[in-house]
Design goal:
Blueprint (H helix, E strand, L loop, with lengths): L15 H19 L6 H26 L4 H30 L1 H11 L17
Helix pairs in contact: 1-2, 1-4, 2-3, 3-4
Length: 129
């Protein structure tokens, strides 16, 4: 059976949304770390959720466009990595918070997210649409 053909071959990934989302998420973590009173935590958490939503949607679209013939497998693998990474990340963050407080939990992602990514170019498999 031949996989369904969709018109996603003309979609090219953009690096603008992930870059802006990374900056937004990084600024939010830094804002949470720098904010002494607790009242900014609510608006900052809303900003963090919005940045994460943009970042997640872009990554999932990239995963689905890698090999259109195996879109279901790509999204399943993406979901497995996403939820496995969340489980491992929460465990590490909880351990770190218990041992060293909130500073490294907020400061490490604030500093690591804006770092330049390696690789580049289009990740869309050509000729698979």
């Amino acid at each position: 059976m031949r996989p369904a053909q969709h018109s996603t071959s003309n979609l090219q990934p953009t690096h603008v949304t992930p870059t802006l989302s990374q900056a937004r998420i990084s600024a939010t973590f830094a804002g949470l770390w720098l904010s002494p009173p607790p009242w900014p935590a609510g608006p900052l958490a809303l900003l963090l959720g919005f940045g994460t939503c943009l970042f997640h949607n872009t990554l999932q679209t990239h995963a689905a466009q890698m090999v259109p013939a195996f879109r279901g497998s790509a999204v399943a693998l993406f979901s497995c990595c996403l939820f496995g990474g969340q489980a491992i990340g929460v465990s590490i963050a909880g351990y770190t918070f218990d041992r060293m407080g909130y500073t490294p939990v907020l400061l490490v992602p604030a500093l690591a997210l804006p770092l330049p990514r390696t690789g580049g170019g289009s990740h869309v498999a050509s000729g698979c649409a």
